[in-house]
Amino acid sequence: MLDIKHVTKVFFPGTVNEKVALEDINLHVNEGDVVCVIGSNGSGKSTLFNMIAGTFPVTNGTISINGKDITSAPEYKRAFYIGRIFQDPTKGTSANMSIEDNMNLAYTKGMKGIRFSLTNERRNEFRRLLEPIGLEDRMQDNVGLLSGGQRQALTLLMATLSHPSLMLLDEHTAALDPRNAEVVMELTKHYIEKEKLTAMMVTHNMQFAIDYGNRLIMMDEGHIILDISGEEKSKLTVPALVDKFREIRKKDYTSDEGLLTE
Amino acid sequence: MIEGIFVEGLIFAIMALGILISYRILDLADLTCDGSVATGAAVATMCIVNGLGITIGLVMAFLSGVLCGLVTAVIHNKLRIPALLAGILTMTMLYSVNLRILGNKANVSLVRVDTLYRLFPKWFSFIPSDWAALLGTLIFVVVVTVLMDLFFRSDIGMAIGALGGNEQVIISQGMNPSVLKMIGLGLSNGLIALSGGLLAQYQGFADANLGQGMVVQGLAAVMIGEFLFSSNKISLITLRCILGGIIYKGLMFLGRKYGYLIGITPNDFKLLTGILVIISLTVAKTRALASDKGARKKAIERTMAHMKEDNNA
Q1: Does residue B3 carry a pLDDT above 70?
Q2: Which residues of chain A are within 8 Å of residue B158 when distances are taken between CB atoms?
Q3: Are residues A104 and B168, on separate chains, in Cβ contact within 8 Å?
Q4: Per the CB < 8 Å rule, is B165 touching A159?
Q5: How many domains does chain B divide into?
């Protein structure tokens, strides 16, 4: 499904600030995979997501999705295959438009025409879809009036409307309070299961990464240092994961441990 | 007399609608306006003087404005130059272009030819000629506004509206934001040029200096409109923008007529308009802050009330 081959990303090449954010990354994600990505700050998780989504061009390597090379495709073209949810809940929706208009915008991907496609039939469909997130009676309200959790839930729903081949969830519950974070995470599981989505999820919660999904990737200093799936993953525990990290990187994890919660 | 203010105000309001698109809907500070309003006036005037007729004149004025907007959008999007500078560049270049369009003359008058404002009294001969001009302009503005409202209710109009609030949403939905900006800026300057085309016919000449300070005046109209009432419905937003345009022209009229009483001359209008915009922006900010503070106060009160209840229980 997703094929990343020899991807390298260097920021500010040739200057004193030169930073190798990703180095020769190779990754193949199968259809239906739910991959949890963990790693400390600066390990390259976000850069990897930015490369897949096309926010910045890669320095070297190729990325293809469903066998199609998208390495040089602009971000908006990749959006046809990729649904991405950011940490910032305001990024996924337009605050000055109503919920139904936001939904209608996300209903079909690509350039719009001079048409009025928000029919009553479609409204009813939206109402039904909004029920799980409890917004079915607020369809005319501006999205700016919603809480962060509600906005993130709506973003999630909007992303699933167009059945993307790949969902990129970039710490999408990190900016929410614990209760809302839990609600949004439950919804995420619900949609991934219901729509049989292929997803990659960055999380700081090691226990969650172990419990959820069928594959776990750990990143450090621009490399994928650990890639565990299936049977092996189900036997994993947090201490075992920390030990593995120590073993591989030959360095003490304690300095980073604060960033990863159990 | 009063009809004259309304006619001026309505013509001016079409320009304010253009500014509304760039400044409020797209959230881009586009200064092309100072040039494109004069381009519209020049193109319409030359078309009419050369016998192409009023309809073609106005259509060409609109299209020339679209072209001006596209130039700014291309400079901004393709060459990655900030929108503000892109607008200033286009505006400055347009000054020369406008002189060319006018045949290297600073102004061209519309004498001995049919213009809309000579035809309106004939079409609406049942009312005095000043009122006929007002009726004609009103119909024109209503048609333009309804078309604009419809456009911004359509799928693509919605997308342009969403772009102003949040560019990432548009990218995530697989749309090219540059294309939407081009459409938005094109439409914005098209309306501005259309307003210029009408203005030239109303005042009876086109002038290369017509556009000077128009952006700020248009902004003032948009701001005044926003003071009238708040809404998120496009039809009401355009309506208040039109009312803002008329009120602005009314204020300017009062300034011309009674300003001498407090020592104000028309020379001071640009300064006063600028101050008006600054005050409006400040008041709008303070208002937002005040409502935030109000919300916070209410939240604290609610919490206190809850605590009291808990204590009582």
Answers
A1: yes
A2: 97, 101, 104-105, 112
A3: no
A4: no
A5: 1
